[in-house]
Automatic annotation (TrEMBL):
It holds the Pfam family CoA_transf_3. This is CoA-transferase family III. Residues 446-474 are annotated as: Disordered. The lineage of its organism: Bacteria, Bacillati, Actinomycetota, Actinomycetes, Mycobacteriales. PANTHER family: BLR3030 PROTEIN, SUCCINYL-COA--D-CITRAMALATE COA-TRANSFERASE. SUPFAM superfamilies: CoA-transferase family III (CaiB/BaiF).
Length: 474
């Protein structure tokens, strides 16, 4: 692990702001971060990384406000609240029921774990969704029971099992060291890339910024949300909470669990579409004809004519945001992935563990929430740059790169005597919704004097139509 580059959180924010192409001399907002690592028992700078990501998003929103005449803001972040945001999925409930219970098969989450193989290497297996469960259990020829999975995995070489499960349509990752990841083709593909990639990919005239104010700065911005689970949906939830018209589009036969929709769907509308059907694809293309942003979290959108290049070609001025675990155009572009798998492959889980046994960070999740805030910041930065420079833009977030970025922030000392996270420090907000009473962590930053938005209520999948509500900004 790197022990250099011990940047302060403010310096990390400055670096991220520079990557996003925001001229710091044009932004007069103040960023205040209270506290810092070590906050929780981890050798990595979890609180500092999350604080920086949250502050960077707040700074981008404030810069947007300044660009349309608002006064400079003060963006405040608390390190302990940033840790709570990293474990938001564990702190969210619907009518008192933890959202982890509100899945098709709650036992499937219990099967997601590290398993030791015959070569004494570890592999992390995911069985959360039916197709992923079937791939793991089909290759291992066992029922979805943890003890049976563990026994079967012990007869496999770890790398052979990784290839077999991924070839069967599942997702998994062998636990590698950071050095092994750096030497792996998928790891080498990501070396040297910024944690948020933002680039102009096409021509187009400048587009005016939204004229929203206060807690609705993005009013008039239209976003097509083709994402699922956590990273992409949380990023679009952040944008919806700031007034954007977000339409979340889901394939009817691949729904996210109810609890996940309730926790990540705030402020969005939801419609069904199956892009394999020409009429549904045509309806989504019509939506994109007047959209500002397309956010995707699925592999190979080019097969539906929705690659960033294709969208920019048919709709100049669109901002396309891609979330991927391993890199959308790299050696593992055809492999799916989740937060835990990125931790496993990149060396992060090995460093979190002890005595040769890997572990996830004490917050359980890492990349998803970091990626969400970084991607939302990149989206706002691209909209702002579009207003000044014109053009179509692409923002790319890769979970494996997020892991590597956190590692590169340097090691933490004095963490071994800290306790695991207990009761949350962050305020828990409660609101009635169509799902029941949703209790979740409050927005983890404060913006003054503009005010910080609160969570907006979610809506069920497929409860609306493929249409826009707002007039749009372009």
């Amino acid at each position: 692990m790197s022990h250099t580059n011990r940047l302060t959180v403010r310096e990390i924010v400055d670096e991220l702001t520079a990557v996003l192409g925001t001229d710091q001399h044009d932004v007069h907002t103040t960023v205040v971060v209270d506290g810092g690592d070590p906050v929780t028992p981890s050798p990595h700078r979890l609180a500092d990384a999350m604080s920086a990501a949250i502050a960077t998003f707040g700074l981008q929103m404030a810069s947007l406000a300044e660009a349309v005449g608002a006064p400079p803001q003060t963006v405040s972040v608390h390190a302990a609240e940033a840790i709570d945001q990293l474990r938001a999925a564990c702190l969210t409930s619907v009518s008192g029921v933890p959202i982890g219970v509100l899945v098709e098969d709650p036992r499937a989450l219990g099967n997601n774990d590290f398993y030791r193989c015959a070569d004494d290497r570890w592999i992390f297996l995911i069985t959360t969704f039916a197709g992923l469960r079937d791939a793991v259990c089909g290759v291992l020829d066992v029922p979805p029971l943890p003890e049976r999975i563990a026994a079967a995995a012990r007869s496999w070489d770890a790398f052979a099992l990784e290839d077999a499960i991924c070839s069967a349509g599942g997702v998994c990752a062998v636990v590698r060291s950071a050095e092994e990841w750096a030497a792996h083709p998928a790891g080498r593909h990501l070396i040297g890339r910024p944690v948020v990639e933002i680039e102009r990919i096409g021509d187009g005239p400048p587009a005016p910024l939204p004229r929203g104010a206060g807690e609705s700065l993005l009013e008039g911005i239209r976003i097509v949300d083709l994402t699922h689970v956590i990273a992409g949906p949380v990023s679009t939830k952040l944008l919806a909470e700031h007034g954007a018209d977000v339409l979340h589009v889901t394939r009817p036969d691949l729904p996210d669990p109810v609890g996940m929709v309730a926790s990540t769907g705030g402020g969005k509308r939801n419609a069904f579409a199956d892009l394999r059907r020409p009429e549904h694809r045509a309806a989504v293309e019509e939506l994109l004809g007047t959209a500002d942003v397309l956010v995707t979290g699925y592999r190979d959108m080019a097969r539906f004519g929705l690659s960033a290049a294709a969208v920019a070609g048919s709709r100049p001025g669109t901002v396309v945001v891609d979330y991927h675990c391993w890199g959308a155009d790299g050696p593992w572009a055809d492999r799916g992935g989740f937060d835990q798998l990125a931790c496993s492959a990149t060396g992060f889980a090995a460093e979190e563990g002890s005595e040769g046994v890997p572990s996830l960070p004490p917050t359980h999740l890492l990349n998803d929430y970091l990626a969400a805030y970084l991607g939302a910041a990149g989206t706002v930065a691209a909209l702002r740059r579009r207003s000044m420079e014109g053009g179509s833009w692409r923002v790319r977030i890769t979970l494996a790169s997020v892991c590597s970025w956190v590692r590169e922030l340097g090691a933490v000392t004095g963490w071994t005597d800290l306790d695991m996270p207990g009761d949350p420090v962050i305020e828990l907000t409660t609101q009635p919704t169509v799902f029941g009473t949703v209790t979740e962590p409050a927005v983890p930053f404060r913006m003054s004097p503009a005010g910080t938005p609160g969570h907006r209520p979610p809506t069920p999948l497929g409860s609306d139509t493929l249409r826009w509500m707002s007039s749009g900004s372009v």
